[in-house]
Amino acid sequence: MPIAPIPHNVPPPRPGPRRPRVLLGLALCGLAAILPRAEAQPSSSLQVHHWWTSASERRAANVLALRLGEEGVEWKDGAIPGGAGLGAGKVLKSRVLAGDAPDATQIIGASIGEWAELGLLLEFDGVAVAGGWNNALFPTVLALVQHRKHVVAAPLGIHRINTLLYNRKLFARAKLAPPSTWHELALAAAALRAVGVAPLLQSSEPWQVATLFENLVLAEGGPDYYRELFVRQTPQAAADARLAVALERLRLMKGWMASPLDEQPWTGVVRRFARREAAMLVTGDWAKAELKELGVPLDDEFSCAPMPGTGKLHLYSVDTLSMFTQDYAHVAAQEKLARLAVTPAVQQQYNLAKGSVPVRRDADPAQMDSCARASWTAFAKGAQSQVPSLVHRMAADEESRDAIIAEVHRFFVNDAVTPGEVQRRLAAVLRSLKLQHRK
Q1: Within this chain, do residues 49 and 136 fall inside the same structural domain, yes or no?
Q2: How far apart (Å, rounded) are the C-alpha atoms in residues 279 and 168?
Q3: Got the DSSP string for 354-369?
Q4: pTM of the prediction?
Q5: Taking the CA atoms of the chain, what radius of gyration do you get in angstroms?
Q6: DSSP 8-state secondary structure symbol assigned to residue 324
Q7: What is the C-alpha to C-alpha distance for residues 230 and 291, in angstroms, rounded to an integer?
Q8: What range does the domain containing 71 cover?
């Protein structure tokens, strides 16, 4: 059944031993005890919790809903508005605490392991074996959806976060080619200003600022340093000169931006980009799909390229769906959704609508647009080219992510804060996080 428009406003799982540190916070320690255990009843519907609320995201979710409907299962939509899933995450925790967990939910990255560690996610190893996931999926994706060697999530698509969207016509006015280095990017900004064009669009919303910043860290420091800072979270990495350079460049780019302190949802930024209010936008490739919904054609009005300095790298985020165990009344329907998500046909249709690329190694690049083809090819090169996004929960847990984003955002909005101060504060944050992780 198609998704309704959003108003504006099986054996039980085998959880492993609990770690001393409960990743989702003390309030969730007793979740397994409070979830309802009603007697199983046949079900022909699934309530799905997610944050796909833009026009392109709705189209992608509708692909899943329609295919699930063809299998005799109704998709009951539970979309929660809010960029980067911040609102949806809070609502999900509240619902689980209240004993009202959804049947299926969008959970991504490190959050998958946090929920699985509590013993709340359905394992569907049989679906994965029957679908040949071991051979079909990229190894990085397969590892992401597993916890303690059990499959606890269904992968949907891979987004490239290091995407530079640029307006081809505005670039032609300034006689520019897409930049591939920081030096070329700075020259392009100057040339665009000289012809009366704002070089860059950006919202001051914290996660959007941090998305630009993690691109700058990757471009300046490379994948090894990026992982040292954001994945291993070594306090000494915060003192590195490369971090200071990334911070200085973030502040320089703030001066290129049209209305840099306007806090807008990403969809609003994309609409402004479609109206030619600036020539460039650094974000995930979901923006490409939203431009398509606005009637702005790829490779005519705009194109995309890797963020300068990251041409051979893929800063990734992977969309995934997990299923809550609850009373096991919905297992058959939940397994249908997990199976469908990875089938070649759904992969092609979903990712075409979403702007992402398939999680399957056997996908056909010839069926992709130019941006998607470049993204899928870069990811397919293997682990050496793949870098997990901090902002989009691939590199670290929620607590670490939020603490780092807060420091970056503080620097962005307050010009009195120096790069050195940010480095000292980040080092302290990382030391504190390491201490907490050891408890």
Answers
A1: yes
A2: 8
A3: HS-B-SBTT--GGGS-
A4: 0.89
A5: 22
A6: B
A7: 30
A8: 43-159+319-376
